Amino acid sequence: MIKSFEQHSADATLVLSPAPAGRPQAPPLHQNEERSETHHKIHAAIIMDGSGRWAEEQGLARSTGHRAGVAAVRRAVQAAPGLGIGTLTLHAFSSDNWQRPAREVRELMLIFEQFLRSSVAEWVGTGVRVSVFGRRDRLEPSLAAAIDAAEAATRGGLRLHLRLAIDYSARTAILCAARALAHSGAATPAEFARLLAARDHHRAPAGSAQVRNVAPGLATGHASPAGGPPFDSGSYAPVPELDLLIRTGGEQRLSDFMLWECAYAELVFTDRRWPDFDAADLAAAIREFHSRHRRFGRVQESVHAAECHR
């Protein structure tokens, strides 16, 4: 059954129908709504789907939809802190997306680079820290440089942590972390989470043998080292588990995105294409999140008892 944002449900997954055109903006969360329900800032993630279809439905090139999607990213980043979101993770480009037409991939990479370079000053001014996770050894040098510059410039941001997944595969990350676990003395969930975070920050080692495993004509000088992607087992803070996962575009699947961190995430699906997603949609999703009864496998009485001891 398809429900609207206003039809709150305690189900594990909510499917949302698109709101009518010209709908009024959703009112902001009440002050105590932003801070109640949880004692920590929310980690929300969005699978930004539907930009290409949005363009095709209007007779436009798919790249036009991807560029329109940048405006939706800016709206989400601006709205997130006021909605109680401390970490916002956006799925920009999966490892499987290399299989798309070469021209579209090149346009996407250019859009990513332009977005990063044009946003740094605003992020510094508004307290946003940006980090990019996924493989970097297959990215063009100019994009990799833009990522490094954005991360360095925004390192001091405390208002919002914006995480962008580029050339990312959750299954690959889990596999690499599992392999590294064999060399670790502590086989605990916390240690695995640390190894998973380290996998997300890997760099290709200098002088390593290269193999080509991306689409023909794409990033041929930056393919992965032989034997698979490198793994940096340095000290990295584990990524907070997801509280809320939103997917736009009408599809209802995780698509190899943050599978470990999604263990107890509340899922919200909407038919709205990503370029049309706005602050009102994000606010409605947060209200829906606060309406859920998150038990984490326990009965409600034990949840209340645990909260009282915090």
Protein model, in words:
With 310 residues, the chain is α/β, with parallel strands linked by helices. It has a domain at 39-170 and 241-291: Decaprenyl diphosphate synthase-like (Undecaprenyl pyrophosphate synthetase), CATH 3.40.1180. The protein contains 9 helices and 7 strands, in the order E-H-E-H-H-E-H-E-H-E-H-H-E-E-H-H. It has a 7-stranded parallel sheet, sandwiched between helices. The two termini are 37 Å apart. The relative contact order is 0.20. Residues 1-13, 17-39 and 202-235 have low confidence and may be disordered.
Order of neighbouring strands in the sheet with most strands:
1-7-6-2-3-5-4
Class based on secondary structure composition and strand pairing? alpha/beta
Distance between the termini: 37 Å
Q: Major sheet, described briefly?
A: 7 strands, parallel
Enumerate how many helices there are, as a single number.
9
Round the Cα radius of gyration to an integer and report it.
20 Å
CATH topology of the domain at 39-170 and 241-291: Undecaprenyl pyrophosphate synthetase
Q: In CATH, what is the homologous superfamily of the domain at 39-170 and 241-291? A: Decaprenyl diphosphate synthase-like
The average pLDDT value, as a whole number, equals 77
CATH class label of the domain at 39-170 and 241-291 = Alpha Beta
How is this structure best summarized?
This protein has a domain of 183 residues: Undecaprenyl pyrophosphate synthetase. Helix content is 36%, strand content 14%.
